[in-house]
């Protein structure tokens, strides 16, 4: 399970770092700012999870692969930003992939550390959405996850699938694949079809 | 003391979650965003406290009551926002109640974990103001606690009362009641009468 | 090494607290808000470092000297803001001094806790830039460190010097002096001469 966790984490790190770097370039940060934002977007969710379960120092600081992968993604984005932009909605698609990978790996790790099903689901969701929250807070905007199409819901669904699989005694791999597919599929369909949760009416009219 | 701590925490959770949900609805977040903001406003102070004293995983994640109470408050606010708005300044009054409850329960828990009087007072204050800070940072505005009428001062007074009571050998209950009443009273009177701390003059004129 | 760590930390605390208080006064926070921002700017980097290496409760909460020094700096700035403003670019110079002191002390402490060279360098950098990030996030602006002249680069250079010195078997003091001087010098020259890292072009034109 450890190798699986690390592989998922590094792949998620790469795609989230691209999303962080994209936001950084758009906000006209300098090269180092872009790299910091890549690293923050890529690792904040996992770092929050590790702090909350008491797994210090967080793996993203100790294992230098995360830094290398995040910086590589940041440099690629910095250099070929225009090309990456030309792809359709790259931030959203990369976000959806990172979201799915982190939600399932975060839930897996929380289970490994002995947390119960509700806490593990919440921590999986946080691992998925934490990077996006940190990225947006760092450029002083309301996190898109609070207004976007089924963003946190998809992360929670993915994490809950892994947790349910664990409770049903499934091996880790199929639960991870189903959970990640569910999360990515839900988010992708929501983007495509504009599925949104209801928004309250601040004033009655 | 444990039962007292949990009861205070859950009551504070409910009222802070309403304040978080109100800000979420006003910023036109979707249903899930409103629930996340409810949970964040309600539990961030306690989670920060638990991280800082090394009590991981934080009780707000492990004990599902916090999640249920925060989501319930969020759903009620989402559904009946107009009614809640019609009450006079509901955010401020709920904030004052949550502030008082969290400041005293935070100080109590820090004492339980063996921290000294200054650290326990600071942690009580942080437990009180942390949720409001997280709530406001998440919608990208300067936390109102930095400009509001005696906000953090009231939290500090409540926490300091509990700490002083502990040092004087009082039983926990009267110190908690006096501390919470002092905090709420101070904040409420400050809102009513517009008591404010001085603001520096950025330019001499 | 402990005395050295604490002396560096308290000096850095004082200068960072001035920078936090200056931002607080400019944003027209009240007296308490200015003190909270002083304390946050002065201690957030160190608190993040302590949380990440598992050194809870963080020294900035347990040792009341940090609170006293930060509040003293905040009060001085609050009272004599106009005079402090009249000095040339005080925020930037104080920032540079705090940055250098915190970067080296943060790296030292991470080494003390047994972290490897890359993690210790990152944690030294974070100790240096964390306070500035918290300060700016709390007044809802994009942290200046992401756009400023060689800000985080300077912190990383200072921390890396200390780490390299440790790996080469130098005694702590010369590595600390060289690292802090390198960080401050790099940042100061960058401000004077407008050295900046490249910024990506969001659109090809």
From TrEMBL, chains A, B, C:
It is a multi-pass membrane protein. Residues 7-78, 93-165 form the Glycine transporter domain. The chain crosses the membrane at residues 6-25, 32-52, 64-81, 93-111, 117-138, 150-167, 173-190. Belongs to the UPF0126 family. This is Trimeric intracellular cation channel family protein. It is found in: Cell membrane. Keywords: Cell membrane, Membrane, Transmembrane, Transmembrane helix. Signal peptide: none annotated. The keyword Glycosyltransferase does not apply. InterPro entries: Gly_transporter (IPR005115). It comes from the Bacteria.
